[in-house]
Specification:
The chain is built from twelve helices and 18 strands. It is of the alpha+beta class. The longest helix is centred in the N-terminal third of the chain and has 20 residues, at 126-145. The chain starts with a strand and ends with a strand. The model has no long low-confidence stretch (mean pLDDT 85).
Length: 425
């Protein structure tokens, strides 16, 4: 499929007549605008026509299906994988800032009114914000190469309390149970975890024997993260009770705790879907006022998928959401992966020999190439995932498959410079 832009840069209907496209390029009546997906632009006036095109979006936390169709053909098909590295990056940045302030400024006056959440209404956590923006980036990419008339988005909202009860094998919540959560009548999460564990150390089993000893003993109990806070968060399912001595011995590597994995799996993805639902729809209506924005339901998608006997996948779900079931499918689908554009981490976590911290700054270009540039290597298209200052590069495909772990810059050819979204078949 070749996507076409008019002389004014507005998208018109694409074509599969590759011979005609070659002729237009050869005669100088069109030029190549983008390599992937292959897009050309007319240099002179030409007849334009449009059809009704519906873009189906199967929204998700880790995988987003995209499919644009008319009544007869599927014109675009892709899977987008939103970024999931923001939580870890922010946690690392917080640790480095904390250590740097401890080294350079031993005391700093407290700041109580510098929280973005209290200043701006509608504030969302950066990990949520970036995923919503990745959804919008993918939709905007399609809108630039196809004259969309309708966007249909399937968003889901999960009952987290019901899911937790099912995971733990407890009775399902009904009515008033939704108001009385697991931490009801407890001052904070720490108090709830201590009460849940019976004020008993999970390692040595010590606990107070008399009521008078509880207050004194609680001060010597610690709440320990089973998985690190960076990975597992502060959910009660990720916390256990340890006495002060066992906690110190565990972090010194002298003992092991009996619990190695959290009891209930993280509900982070389900929580994200509940948060992003209204925000995504509202932002799409503001960004694309000339396109009709509709919301699709998951149970309807499932019904038509089973009725049409279509295999379950994110791209297939997006095709069903587009609501043109008889359209002819494309043979290939794109893979779209957004990448971070900035790295403000100026120090490494470890100190080199001699006690000097080395600046973690690499030149942007090494022999004319930068990270995530698309290159031709050994007859295959790949991306630069690693580089050395002497001119050797680690080339991989977008799905992670290695093409060459260390090849000279003399043996590769630049196809496209990288941008915020990496696209490949």
């Amino acid at each position: 499929m070749v996507y076409i832009l008019s002389k004014n840069g507005k998208p018109i209907m694409p074509t599969e007549n590759h011979a005609k496209v070659r002729l237009l390029l050869k005669c100088g009546k069109a030029k190549v605008v983008k390599r992937t997906p292959f897009t050309i632009q007319f240099l002179s006036t030409s007849k334009t026509y449009k059809q009704d095109i519906t873009l189906g979006i199967d929204a998700g936390s880790k995988h987003v299906g995209m499919s644009a169709t008319t009544e007869r053909k599927e014109l675009f098909s892709a899977e987008l994988r939103p970024r999931n590295d923001v939580v870890e990056l922010l946690s690392t940045r917080r640790e480095l800032r904390h250590s740097r302030r401890n080294r350079k400024t031993r005391y700093r006056q407290a700041k109580f009114n510098n929280r973005v959440k209290s200043k701006h209404k509608g504030w969302l956590a950066p990990s949520v914000e970036v995923k919503i923006w990745n959804h919008i980036q993918g939709i905007n990419l399609v809108n630039k190469i196809l004259p969309l008339t309708t966007i249909r988005v399937e968003t889901a909202e999960f009952d987290l309390q019901r899911l937790k009860a099912m995971e733990e094998g407890k009775p399902l919540p009904v009515g008033k149970d939704y108001q009385l959560g697991e931490q009801y009548n407890h001052y904070n999460t720490r108090q709830y975890v201590l009460h849940r564990d019976g004020y008993r150390c999970a390692c040595c089993g010590n606990k107070p024997t008399k009521k008078k000893e509880v207050k004194f003993y609680v001060d010597k109990l610690n709440v320990h993260h089973i998985e690190s806070r960076k990975i597992g968060g502060n959910s009660p399912s990720n916390l256990i009770t340890l006495c002060e001595s066992c906690h110190k011995l565990y972090h010194a590597g002298k003992i092991e705790i009996p619990v190695k994995k959290r009891k209930v799996k993280s509900m982070r993805d389900a929580t994200f879907m509940g948060i992003m639902r209204k925000t995504l729809m509202e932002r799409l209506r503001n960004m694309f006022p000339n396109i009709e924005i509709k919301e699709a339901m998951g149970y309807i998608t499932k019904y038509w998928r089973e009725r049409k006997n279509i295999e379950k996948s994110h791209i297939n779900d997006a095709f069903i959401i587009a609501n043109n079931f008889d359209a002819k499918r494309l043979d290939k689908s794109l893979l779209i992966i957004p990448k971070r554009q900035h790295n403000r981490q100026i120090h490494k976590c470890t100190i080199n020999k001699g006690g000097k911290r080395k600046l973690n700054q690499t030149p942007k270009y090494v022999f004319g190439y930068k990270l995530f540039d698309k290159v031709l290597c050994l007859g295959q298209e790949g991306f630069i995932f690693g580089r050395r200052s002497i001119g050797y590069f680690d080339i991989r495909k977008l799905n992670g498959e290695s093409i060459h772990a260390g090849i000279s810059y003399k043996k590769i050819k630049l196809l496209e410079h990288s941008n915020s979204m990496l696209i490949s078949y």
